[in-house]
Amino acid sequence: MNASNPLGPAPFPPGRQFAVTWAVERQFGGMTAAMLRRSQAIAEATSQRVDILTFDVRDDYAAVAAHLRDGGRLPDALRLRNLWDELADGAPDAPTPPPPRTLSAFDPLPPSPARTATRVGADGTLLQLDRRRTDGTLAVSDRRDAAQRGTPGGRSIVLCDAAGEPLGGFRRARDLYAWWLDAVIGDTESFLLIDSKTTAARLLGYRNPRATRVHIMHSSHLAGDSRPFGLVKDARRSVLTNLEDFDSVVILSERQRADLHRMLGPADNLDVVPNAAAPLGPVPPAERDPGLGVVVAQLEDRKRIDHAVRAVAAARRAGAEVRLDVYGDGAPRAELERLAEDCGAADAIRFLGFHADAAESFTRASFFLLTSTTEGFPLVLVEGMARGCIPLAYDIPYGPADIIDPGTNGVLVPSGDVGALASAIADVAGRADTAALRAAAARAAEAYTDDAVLRRWAQVLAESRRRRDSTGRRFTVAVRAAEVDRSGTRTTATVDFTLAGIDVAPSAVRAAIGLSGASADGPVEVRAEGSVRRTLRRGVWRASVRFDRPATAWIPLELPLSATLDLRANGRTLRVPLGT
């Protein structure tokens, strides 16, 4: 990590730094790589350790940490911590949680050789999980069939004392997570940088007066490659409909922020900070094979590695002398190897598996392929360009179009067009001189060095804390009448309401209408902001909203939509259901 900064150190606001994610594996993709790099850079900039907090249940986190440390991916400035390990090893100092409403569900599993014992149903559903200490005493018992044994439903999480006797507990997992976070934070000002969407959804509603909460959205919010409107990813839905729950939601590109504003209306807490990915210092020149391309990606459906295989095979059939090295692992590997054989390119495409230093392949290859359906801001894009490797990328949401200037520093190809990708491969491999293209790619990546990105993080964290501290007094909303009209070419909505608890001018109140639905293909979420005024009736306000035609024209009229009124005033946002 390069700690030098010609502009001086990034002025981070004081406070402990925590990276929050669901799990850390021995082998990981771009999100975890970005989290580790960011955490290390912040640790060096602030001269303090960054703790990485995880919530998944496993017995080998100490071994995972040792493996990553031995491989140089978990430096001493970072510490890996896990909720279940700390419960079993001696929970942090914190007020004892109250006993569950009933302990009748407490029924520990027999001791087993493993520290974690489980009970599953006939269909494999997890019904109970017990975690024991190294001395064999029970630390925590988590029953997920507390209402009726054998049937999922009802939660009873019981913490035990040193003798394995019930001490206190929770009826919801999110209450356990909040209790642990409170204990970890203590009385110190802290920043929680929440990376995984799984964790962000589970921490919705978590509040601590000493914690500034920032969620980083590492991938597209859209289920497909149409933009700015379209179906959203189901795993993103809870966060998208509660953006205001966080002090900041960090997006990796300006284009994604603009699309979110168009789909969900203005949001003051959406910030843009790209991932840092440029190498540290100049990349030594290397002899490149003009026909060698690489793919660095997890082998999963979203990455569409089969498109890369087909495109290389098609380029070879057209006479281009090209080869492809694929770095990454996943379930489809055998299927992809068969595809390469079926396409007659098995001798030209190598599947090399996971390599921790796969990014170094960019210094040897001539070009690299990015064929995903969606991304946030792919780490691999800048890693490759910074090393002078020419990007040939699908034009997808989001990332490639934010940095690639077609023909100047790389090539953009229409998403899913394998033929166009094959032509681009043949063209780049056949060029006599690619030096200018490579130099331009490396220059474009300079905006994503650790120093540049760190300074942006310092600004965002300071602004996030200011938002946290600017929340005003609470108020309530009562809806008097509401009408949503989808019969014309545009969707309009009018809501009459009253406010209690505050006395503000109409200019200090912002209103938006959200429409939600569930189609057979996925969730629908759109929101638009409108005008607010006082009516002639005493104490009654009116919000009027008109959706842009493209925002709702794609939604089938027969699809039932639920409407909500979102009111922001006095630094707070209230969401009021309006019905279907």
The amount of beta strand, in percent, is 25-35%
How much is the radius of gyration in Å?
Answer: 26 Å
Q: What top-tier CATH class of the largest domain fits best? A: Alpha Beta
Indicate how many domains the architecture comprises: 4
Give the strand order of the largest sheet, numbering strands 1, 2, ... along the chain. 3-2-1-9-10-11-12
Globally, the shape reads globular
CATH architecture of the largest domain: 3-Layer(aba) Sandwich
Distinct helical segment count: 15
pLDDT below 50 for ≥5 consecutive residues: which ranges? Answer: 1-8
CATH homologous superfamily (4th level) name of the largest domain: Glycogen Phosphorylase B
Let me know the largest β-sheet.
7 strands, parallel
Question: Would you write up a description of this structure?
Answer:
- The protein is α/β, with parallel strands linked by helices and 580 residues long.
- It folds into four domains: 16-89 and 176-272, Rossmann fold, CATH 3.40.50.2000; 101-170, no CATH class; 289-448, Glycogen Phosphorylase B (Rossmann fold, 3-Layer(aba) Sandwich), CATH 3.40.50.2000; 476-579, Immunoglobulins (Immunoglobulin-like, Sandwich), CATH 2.60.40.
- The chain is 26% helix and 28% strand.
- It has 15 helices and 25 strands.
- The chain has helices spanning 30-46, 61-70, 83-90, 173-185, 197-202, 237-240, 254-264, 305-317, 333-342, 379-386, 400-403, 418-430, 435-444, 450-469, 549-552, and strands at residues 16-20, 50-54, 78-82, 116-120, 126-132, 138-143, 156-160, 166-170, 190-194, 211-217, 248-251, 270-272, 289-296, 323-327, 349-353, 365-370, 390-395, 411-414, 476-485, 492-500, 510-519, 522-534, 541-546, 562-569, 572-579.
- The chain has a seven-stranded parallel sheet with strand order 3-2-1-9-10-11-12.
- α5 links the parallel β9 and β10 (211-217).
- α8 crosses α12 (418-430).
- The longest helix is centred in the C-terminal third of the chain and has 20 residues, at 450-469.
- The radius of gyration is 26 Å and the shape is globular.
- The N and C termini lie far apart (53 Å).
